[in-house]
Amino acid sequence: MTNGGLSARNSHALLSALLVLSMAGCALHDTDSATDPNQAGALNGLPPTFDTFTQTDVTPTQDLTTLDADQLARTLGSWWEIFDDKTLDALVLRAIEANWRLQAALENIEQARSQIVRVNASALPSLNAGVTASRQQTGTTSKLGFGLYDLYGFNASLAWEPDVFGQVQARVDTASRDAQALAFDRRALMVSITAELVDAYAQLRAVQQQLSLTRQYAGLLEQQIRLTGRLADSGLVAPAQVAQTRQAYLTTQAQIPVLQARIESLITTCSILTGGFPADLSKTLRKPAPMLSVHHPVPETLPSQVLMQRPDIAAQQARILASAAGVQAAEADFMPSFSIPLGTGYSTTPFDLLLNPASFIWSLGAGLTAPLYTGEELQASLAIAQSVNREDQLLYEQTVRQALKEVEDAVTDYQMSQQSLSSTQGMAQAQAATVVQQKSLFTTGQASRLQLNQALLDQLLASQSVIDARYASAASLVMLYRALGGGWHTELDRSPTPPLTTESSDAHLTDNPVRTAPVERAQVS
């Protein structure tokens, strides 16, 4: 793991790419993009690596809401599979399918899709039909006659307002881009949840190892208390040494319930993130398992498309395009609107003549309405739309700079954690060699049991440091993938993702019946 990884050269190339993206965002909404939002973010071609970078289109190549959990895992790069932990793979798959926050985000996308349909419907003709029946009394001064009579009618009307100046189309574009942004928001949430889950699982396995070492450490200290007690009785050691050993033992014992509580809390976190209840994974995850370790090196170079996998950047690009379409719609409101009404039907006083050809009536017209004076309402609406677009551009700049910081911090933390892990492992190996020497000396009578136990205690402390360093390394790698928007695809030979429930005790992820709703499928367009 220490041989592979992102070099300083590649990390700087990645940061340079983000800076280029930041500058590209400034050009997303110029005069042309305000009138034609589809021109913003055009795909001009991407290089294979981060040596150069070109802004890409925010339109996703595949609609994430139409995919099942396994397919969604693949679109995220399945980066967690680098740890080769089947239980973790199944946990992540379950979270993608059943997490309640992701389910709620999917409902937001459904609402946005319905809004697209509603806006688009306003450009279509509307057809209505009606039947009337009334009894009327005319006055004696009416030129049409007077008296009491019945009036029956049947009519149909067709109305259409042609979208001559593009008001409706601009609003459809706005709704479509809003839905697209929500889809990217859901992907960002998905990346966040998977990273939280992997980190919680990695921490769980680390704390379980810490608990095991702490118990071993307490057991050795208990032996030391007995040994130093006998030596103190013989006058070979000071009583203070016995008291110090007992204090260390009690301190170590006090750490055990703290670690146990931490384990339960992490199991609860995993259960909630996977869409279950706090105790759902208790029996399965309480059993200790090996810590996460990277079995495949991180690539030295990354494709440029990795940066575009940051869904928060893509979502903000979509919002810029949505507000640009909003400006176009506000400008179109200054133009006239046209209407073409058509009416036809039957109207008669005797009911038996209702469908008689002589009772047939019709009307056809055309109308034009132009805003002459609106009390500056239209001007204010346009100013608001333009301000929203400028705000979206500023938020885009902020998002890019935040991404720059997160990537830089993640790359630095990953590199430092690798160095720390290497040093800690070297220290542990040296301490293991010391234990071997002490055992040899103890066997030949050149060292006491007290000295051997002290060497074993030091070895346990070194092992504790290795556990901390291994978790820090795994956590920094998780944050690196998260900062890059969910990871990247590699050519690793991965086995298929396991099902949510299997016969294996390591992959059986629930002790209670699954209480989840099926994944809804939608299409954002």
UniProtKB/TrEMBL annotation:
<feature type="coiled-coil region">
    <location>
        <begin position="95"/>
        <end position="122"/>
    </location>
</feature>
<feature type="signal peptide">
    <location>
        <begin position="1"/>
        <end position="29"/>
    </location>
</feature>
<keyword id="KW-0812">Transmembrane</keyword>
<keyword id="KW-0564">Palmitate</keyword>
<dbReference type="Pfam" id="PF02321">
    <property type="entry name" value="OEP"/>
</dbReference>
<keyword id="KW-0175">Coiled coil</keyword>
<protein>
    <recommendedName>
        <fullName>RND transporter</fullName>
    </recommendedName>
</protein>
<keyword id="KW-0449">Lipoprotein</keyword>
<feature type="region of interest" description="Disordered">
    <location>
        <begin position="490"/>
        <end position="525"/>
    </location>
</feature>
<comment type="similarity">
    <text>Belongs to the outer membrane factor (OMF) (TC 1.B.17) family.</text>
</comment>
<dbReference type="InterPro" id="IPR003423">
    <property type="entry name" value="OMP_efflux"/>
</dbReference>
<dbReference type="InterPro" id="IPR010131">
    <property type="entry name" value="MdtP/NodT-like"/>
</dbReference>
<dbReference type="GO" id="GO:0015562">
    <property type="term" value="F:efflux transmembrane transporter activity"/>
</dbReference>
<keyword id="KW-0472">Membrane</keyword>
<dbReference type="GO" id="GO:0005886">
    <property type="term" value="C:plasma membrane"/>
</dbReference>
<keyword id="KW-1134">Transmembrane beta strand</keyword>
<keyword id="KW-0732">Signal</keyword>
